[in-house]
Structure formats: structure tokens, C-alpha cells
Amino acid sequence: MTGARPRSRIQQKNRETILDAALEVFSQFGFRGATLDQIAEAAGLSKPNVLYYYPSKEAIHTELLQNLLDVWLQPLRDLDPGGDPMDELLRYVRRKLDMSRDMPRESRLFANEMLQGAPRMGESLGGALRALVNDKAAVLQGWMDSGRLTPVPPVHLVFSIWALTQHYADFEIQVRAVLGPGHDPFAEAEVFLDTLFRRLLSPQT
Amino acid sequence: MTGARPRSRIQQKNRETILDAALEVFSQFGFRGATLDQIAEAAGLSKPNVLYYYPSKEAIHTELLQNLLDVWLQPLRDLDPGGDPMDELLRYVRRKLDMSRDMPRESRLFANEMLQGAPRMGESLGGALRALVNDKAAVLQGWMDSGRLTPVPPVHLVFSIWALTQHYADFEIQVRAVLGPGHDPFAEAEVFLDTLFRRLLSPQT
DNA sequence: GTCTATACTCTGATAGAC
DNA sequence: GTCTATCAGAGTATAGAC
User: B30 phi and psi, to 5 degrees?
Assistant: First the structure.
């Protein structure tokens, strides 16, 4: 019996409820703008009860952020150096767009942290994140060197995928306002982004 | 003597100082996360003195937002239907990227407002903004119909320009962390985005 | 485990002297 | 126009009953 202390079923469930409520609030208002009252309200618990499960507002936020980066970067980790370059890249784009559609709150939590200068994530950015991106950038560069993708700066290519896919989650309110009713932003984006990256990266014969 | 009440030189100067300080703070922490103490501190004024020039925290934020949309959309307004399509589009991209480099705080203020669901901007999004985008989308569509640009969904093309350029301001901390020292993100982005949109939109002969 | 009550700090805003 | 003092309310967190 090593590792984290065991927790009862009800404890586990309440902790998850709190995290979900906190994600809702933090992703919209940022750390400072969010209040424990809002989180407790969204979780259907009293404020002291929330603080029974987590020692502080900061602790809740920290746990959310720590889980986030793992989930967020999984599609990039899964980029397979042995796969077909264009297939792999377009699949990465599609998976990132799916995450924007299915996990917009996580996307906004991340965006909020970046806007604030990543005060609670700083080390990971220059460490794990940077290492992963550079690793995958080398894979992309290899594909370009062998003529299977048109050469572009690989790190900026990754930035462009992040920017284009996350925009549909982070600026969803604007996207919907501009498109008006009767549109499916994510379905349209999927087609558009597929076209965009094909045109950008298809080798000229 | 009609219109706004006249203000002394010192009044004008202090109001500008406050707006600049508030932009700094609001763009980082959002409306709820920002405090008058921070704004006063950044402005070098006492808190009551700040409230001498503006009746409330909300009033400062409102004035910032109202000025913002005008400035922010000027490059799009300037897209000239009579110009050369590719030149006009690439110039638009370049100007938006310049704004990300020179006005990152404004970009982040806007992003913060979007992340929160645009509670203090909602009407403008579906009104003036939507009208402008649809107007310019028609221009783009015309260029595509005449074969001078490769056809893509014009509104999503505009979204892609916003996403790609604003990313370098809003996620600047991440961009710099991943690139590491010795890089000029905006200079590299200018070249990359020029390439990207050329490849996407150059008509195939 | 959950609640009420409460301590204490922060925050937006005002009063009033200078 | 600017300051000190201060108020009322919101906010984080804790104490202690149940």
C-alpha cells in the first residue's frame, strides 16, 4: 500500500465534482477573477465543504493545471515518426480541433494562464513543453528534408496548428457571432484546416 | 461649444495615464481579476485619485473596450476591393501581425473579453463586427470567383488570419519559451505567414 | 462529512481636509 | 486636484457544532 492515501468513493466523487466546477469558473474568469463562492455554487456544495476537499483555491487551480498539460499535449506526443507525414500531420490537426470542440473549457483555462504570463506554469513551458516540441519539430524537419513535406519552419508550423485549432474554442463566442445561426463552426473548420495544411505542405512535384 | 465638456491639460494627461495603466492590468487579469489598487499603482496615482477621473472601475474598462474595437478592425476596413487581391491580403496579414507586436496588451484585452463570453461587448460582435466581416468576405469571395485567389471559405480565412496573428501576442510567453533565446518570433512569423497564405491562396495555373 | 458562524483581509467607493 | 481616513461588502479561510 504505497502512494497516495486512499479515498472513499464519495470523496473521490466530490473531488471530481469540485474540479469540474472549478474548471468552469477558472476557464472563464482566470485565477484571480474566479471566486470560491462561484465554484461552490457550480459544484452544489457549501464553501467550507469545498475547502474540506482542497486546502485552498490555489490548490484546486494547481491540480487543474497539472492535469491539463498532460491531456493537452497527448495528440502531439502521438505524432508517429514512422507514419505517413501528411496523414500524421492532418490527423494531429483533426485531433486538436476535436479537443477544441469537446474540451473548450480546458482550452480557455490554458489560454487564461498564457494571457497572464503563465505565472503557475512557467517551468513546464521552457522544460517539458519545449522539449516535446523540439523533439517533434525534428521529426517534421526530417520529413521536409526527405521531400515528403514542403519545407517550412517546423516550430512555427506547430504554433500555427495550435493557433488555428484553439481559436475555435477560445474565441467561440466571436466565431458564432460572426457566422450567425445555421453554421457548424467546427465542421466547417475541419474542412478548411484540412485544405489549408494540405496546400501548405503538399510537396510540389 | 457643443459636445464633450472641455478638460484641462493635466486632466487629459492623467486620464491617459490611467487608461494606459488599466490596459496593462485588465489585459493580464481580466475585468474581475484586476483591482483598482493595481491600476492606481501602475498609474502612479492614489486610488481615490483614479476614481476622481473615472466614476468606477467599470467605466475605465468600458472606455478601453470602446476604443479597442475601432483600432482593432482598422486593417480589415482598409482592405481595398480595388487593389490586387494577393497584395491586399498579405498586407492585411502583415498589419495584423504588426499590431500583435506593437499592441500586445490590446490583443490580450480583447482575448480576455472573448474568453469570458464577451459580456461587455456582445452587441458589437453580432452587429458592427459581423457586418464588417461579411462585407469583406464578399470582397474575398469576388476575388475567388474571378480566379484571382484560390477558393476557400472567406469568413474562415479571416478567422485564420486573426488566429495566426493574434496567437503571437496572446501566447507570446509560450512562443518565447518554446523557441528559446536568440529568436525574433515576430520576424519569423512574418516570413512564415507570408508563405502560408501565398501557398493557400495562389491560384493554380 | 457537512453545516453555521465568524475571523480577517481585500476591494470598490465615498467623505472631507488641504 | 490630491490626499488620508474610512465604510460597506465581498472574498479566503478557519473554528467548532452536529
Answer: 75, 175
Note whether A174 contacts B: Cβ–Cβ < 8 A.
yes
Which among B34, B122, B155 is the nearest to A179, CB-wise?
A: B155
Q: How does DSSP classify residue A202?
A: S
pLDDT band at A8 (very low <50, low <70, confident <90, very high): confident
Nearest to B28 by CA among B106, B144, B137, B145: B106
CA A62/CA A120 separation, integer angstroms: 8
Those nucleotides of strand C lying less than 7 Å from any protein Cβ are: 1-5, 10-16
From CA A25, how far away is CA B17, in angstroms rounded?
32
- Domain residue limits, chain B: 9-64, 73-201
Sign for the pseudo-dihedral over CA of A92, A98, A103, A108: positive
A115 with B31: Cβ contact below 8 A: no
Report how far apart, in Å, the C-alpha atoms of B152 and of each of A157, A159, A178, B136 are. 20, 21, 17, 14
Window 60-119 of B, Cβ < 8 Å to A: 108, 111-112, 114-118
Rounded distance, CA A168 to CA A123, Å? 27
Residues B131-178 have pLDDT tens digits of 999 999 999 999 999 999 999 999 999 999 999 999 999 999 999 999
Superfamily covering domain B9-64:
Homeodomain-like (1.10.10.60)
- Buried b or exposed e, range A148-160, using 16+ CB within 10 angstroms: ebeebbbbbbbbb
**pLDDT at residue A100 greater than cutoff 60:** yes
Q: Strand, helix or coil at B150?
A: coil
The cell for B74 is 482598422
pLDDT band at A82 (very low <50, low <70, confident <90, very high): very high
Contact A128/B at CB under 8 A: no
Chain A to chain B, count of Cβ pairs less than 8 Å apart?
Answer: 162
* pLDDT value of residue A132: 98
Tell me the nt nearest to A52, Cα to C1'.
C1
Residue A176: count other Cβ atoms within 10 Å of its Cβ: 15
pLDDT tens digits, one per residue of B13-48: 999 999 999 999 999 999 999 999 999 999 999 999
Q: Please, what is the average pLDDT of chain B?
A: 96
Same fold, B9-64 and B73-201: no
* Class of domain B73-201 (CATH, top level): mainly alpha
Nucleotide nearest to B52 (CA to C1'): D1
